[in-house]
Structures are given as structure tokens and as C-alpha cells.
Amino acid sequence: MAVNDSQGASQVAEGAFRRAQQVQSSLAELNARIATLSALLHIDLAEAAVMQSVLQGTHPDFGVLHQHQQSVASRSGADKCHDRALQELQGLLALRCDLMTATIGELGLAVTQDIVQQVQDRRAQEGLRPDADGFHLRHLLKPDMD
After folding, report:
1. pLDDT value at position 137?
2. If DSSP states are collapsed to H, E and C, what string results for 51-91?
3. Is the separation of the CB atoms in 104 and 46 below 8 Å?
4. Which of 72, 122, 133, 140 has the highest local Cβ count within 10 Å?
5. Half-sphere exposure (CA, 13 Å, Cβ side) for 123?
6. 27-55 as b/e: b if 16+ CB within 10 A
7. How far apart are alpha carbons 10 and 7 in whole angstroms?
8. Alpha-carbon gap, residue 62 to 70, rounded angstroms
9. Shortest CA distance to 133 belongs to which of 61, 22, 29, 53?
């Protein structure tokens, strides 16, 4: 029986490791796309309040989006592109929140902290601004060092 228990534990650990790798890859891709969209839209996600306003659909650009939806036929291609990018940004921010919530529940806080740190370290090595992707949650994941 001990051999089967050992094999089962090994399989569980291997599955958790693979899942952590998948989450790390997904988070890195999400953060990169979020940073790209925020730069394209000239929305600075370094401020938590700005990120919240995009998530909630209360950012000033959404007002422009809603005004333009009434005259869809007269809108330029650039306006339509802006609207799609804004909606994609909002969706990706929500998706990232869902991913982090699920990861904490599935893999635990300590593993999630490690994943987040690895993704942020890689972005820093690439020379990207730490908050370009608006990922303020990582500050909440770290234990208070005061």
C-alpha cells in the first residue's frame, strides 16, 4: 500500500507543478496583452483607481464608447478599433482577477505568490515598467514586511 500512496502523492505533485506552469504562462500572456492595450489606449494602469474604473466600466473612455454606439454607422475605423480595444482590456482585467482567485483556491497562496513573482521578475528583465499591466494584486499577495 505504501508504494501506491507514494505514487499517488507523486502524481498529485506533478499535476500541481504542471498546473502552476500553465498558470504562469497564462498570467504572463495576459499581463503582456493588458500592457499593450493600456499603452495603445493611453490608459495608465499604474493607479489602482484607474484600473478599477476600467474594470467597472466607469473610465471616461467608456462614456465616449457609449455616446458613439448610437451613431455606429458614422464612426471611423479608428473609433471602432479603440472601442474594441477598450472592451478587450476590460475583459482581460476581469479574466486575470478570475485566474488569480482560482489559482489561490486551487494551488494555495504560497504557490500563487511564487507564480506572480516569477512573472513580474521576467517582465522586469524584459525592461517593462512594473505597473504597466496594472497588476496591483501582487502587492496584496506579499506578506506585510513592516
Report:
1. 54
2. HHHHHHCCCHHHHHHHHHHHHHHHCCHHHHHHHHHHHHHHH
3. no
4. 133
5. 26
6. bbebbbbbbebbeebebebeeeebbebbb
7. 5
8. 13
9. 29
131: DSSP letter: T
φ and ψ at residue 126, rounded to 5 degrees: -80, -5
Which residue from 33, 57, 58 is spatially nearest to 134, judged by alpha carbons? 33
- pLDDT over 90 percentage in the chain: 50
CB atoms under 10 Å from CB of 103, counted, come to 22
Q: Are 34 and 96 in contact, with CB atoms under 8 Å apart?
A: yes
Residue pair 113/26 in contact (Cβ under 8 Å)? The answer is: no
Q: What is the pLDDT of residues 2-22, one digit of tens each?
A: 546 666 667 778 888 999 999
pTM, entire model: 0.79
Q: Supply 54's cell numbers.
A: 476600467
